[in-house]
Amino acid sequence: MLVTAPADQLLAGFQLAETRCNYCKITLQEGDPVSAYAVRYAGDDEWDVPRLYCHPCRATIEEPTLGATELLAEGRLGLTMDAAIQRTSLTLLGIERVIQSEPEDGRATL
After folding, report:
1. How far apart are CA 52 and CA 41, in angstroms?
2. Helix, strand, or coil here: 110?
3. From CA 42, how far away is CA 29, in angstroms rounded?
4. How far is CA 74 from CA 32, 42, 50, 97, 108, in A?
5. pTM higher than the cut 0.70
6. How far apart are CA 73 and CA 36, in angstroms?
7. Which of 3, 88, 95, 103 is the most exposed place for a label (fewest CB within 10 A)?
């Protein structure tokens, strides 16, 4: 079953594996404003957030990738707690702006 949702709703609460800016490598913390690059390739069911940027290093989608839906969401980092297992994780919150590129846009990668 295909589930559709607005990009800001899709990425809100997304658990992040990386906590450093992809460009300047500064460690990001709760409350920091960020840009998060999310991608889903044609045929895949799941989204990935492989890159995170601090506010001064904000990124944009300059060269979209053919065959991929790419999102660049601006928001802040927050902690989300799973009370059942007593674990917190860094997540995306307060997403205010999303730039999107569709799978048919862009150029092929090698």
Report:
1. 18
2. coil
3. 32
4. 11, 24, 15, 5, 26
5. yes
6. 5
7. 3
Which amino acid is residue 31, in one-letter code? G
Q: Are 38 and 73 in contact (CB under 8 A)?
A: yes
Residue 32, CA distances (Å) to 26, 85, 102, 103 in order: 11, 25, 28, 30
Q: What is the pLDDT along the chain (110 residues), one digit of tens a residue?
A: 455 667 777 778 888 888 899 999 999 999 999 999 888 888 888 888 889 999 999 877 777 677 888 888 899 999 988 889 988 888 888 888 787 776 666 555 54
Domain extents in the chain: 7-101
Measured between alpha carbons, how far is 51 from 20 in angstroms, rounded to an integer? Answer: 9
DSSP-based three-state secondary structure for 10: helix
**Would you state the structure tokens that stand for residue 38, as one six-digit string?**
């999310």
